[in-house]
Design a protein that fits this description.
The chain is α+β, with helices and mostly antiparallel strands and 158 residues long. It is 34% helix and 17% strand.
């Protein structure tokens, strides 16, 4: 999908999108080293990739998908994405290079929080794995900023 294809719609894209959305593309692949996302140079339609993912592997465990940011998303409050608000509230390595990303010009996270979202994006998984308490808090639309701040403060003490 070219930049022109994305801009024609005038829509923003979610970098933690649904794999099965008709417009969904693979944004990146989760690497074995720390599980961080390695971004693809060019997007690949999810429909081309999903059939080759083994049946016993949840696609969101190994791939990151991008799809349109939609008004009925659980993480939506008005025009804002509460998921990226929670993501941006967590500590980040400020020295980390911002990854190259073909989605940035139309990314909801970039539009809403800028580079703070980009610095954290590679560390995020669409699927929360068991035992990832911070990931579960971030993913839960009911999590308040106070709860997130308390978890971060507690983790800093231990």
């Amino acid at each position: 999908m070219s930049t022109a294809d994305r801009s024609e719609t005038g829509r923003t894209w979610c970098p933690s999108g649904k794999a099965d959305a008709p417009e969904s593309v693979v944004l990146g692949v989760r690497s074995g080293q720390g599980g961080e996302v390695v971004y693809l140079a060019d997007p690949v339609p999810a429909g081309d990739v999903l059939p080759v993912v083994p049946k016993d592997v949840e696609p969101t465990r190994v791939l990151r998908f991008a799809s349109h940011c939609v008004s009925n998303c659980l993480h939506r409050r008005g025009h804002d994405c509460t998921l990226v608000e929670r993501v941006a509230a967590t500590p980040a390595d400020e020295s980390r290079n911002v990854p190259r990303c073909h989605l940035r010009a139309h990314c909801k996270w970039w539009v809403q929080v800028g580079v703070d979202g980009c610095r954290r994006c590679p560390a995020l998984a669409t699927a929360v794995v068991e035992g990832d308490d911070l990931g579960a808090l971030i993913a839960d639309p009911a999590t308040t900023m106070e709860q997130l701040d308390a978890w971060v403060a507690e983790a800093a003490r231990t």
